[in-house]
Amino acid sequence: MISSIGATPDSQHPTLAHYHHAKAHADNFLKSRDIDWTIIKPGRLIDTLGTGTTTLSTTIGTYGETSLDNTTAIIAACIDTPSTIHQEFQALEGPISIIRALKGL
To answer: What is the DSSP track for 59-78?
Structure first.
């Protein structure tokens, strides 16, 4: 699932609160199911070439940005990386290779 860093039921964001509430509801619904799930919370998406590197964090709250290229590479890499199952993490631009960062979750 692609979510949002600010996705909380109590978001007070001036323009995205309704979006954050809906995303939080969807995230919580997914986590309550007896299935394998992964929730990726990318930073503000930018249309630049991907570097293949990232910073991932399970501590949600730091804002930043990430390229569309890196975001799609992270999504694809999650399919073959079992450590991402039942993980919720934010993804921002950073210095660590995507595969190494995912395996470190």
So the answer is: STT---EEEHHHHHHHHHHH
DSSP string, the chain: -B--TT--TT---TTTHHHHHHHHHHHHHHHTSSS--EEEEE-EEE-S---SEEEEESSTT---EEEHHHHHHHHHHHHT-GGGTTEEEEEEEEEEEHHHHHHT-
Residues 21 and 11: beta-carbon distance below 8 Å: yes
Task: Going residue by residue through the chain, which has 105 residues, state the pLDDT in tens, using 9 for 90 and above.
Answer: 999 998 888 888 899 899 999 999 999 999 999 999 999 999 999 999 999 999 999 986 778 999 999 999 999 999 999 999 999 999 999 999 999 999 998
53-57 vs 87-97, strand pairing mode: antiparallel
What amino acid is encoded at 32 in this protein?
S
Q: What is the pTM of this model?
A: 0.91
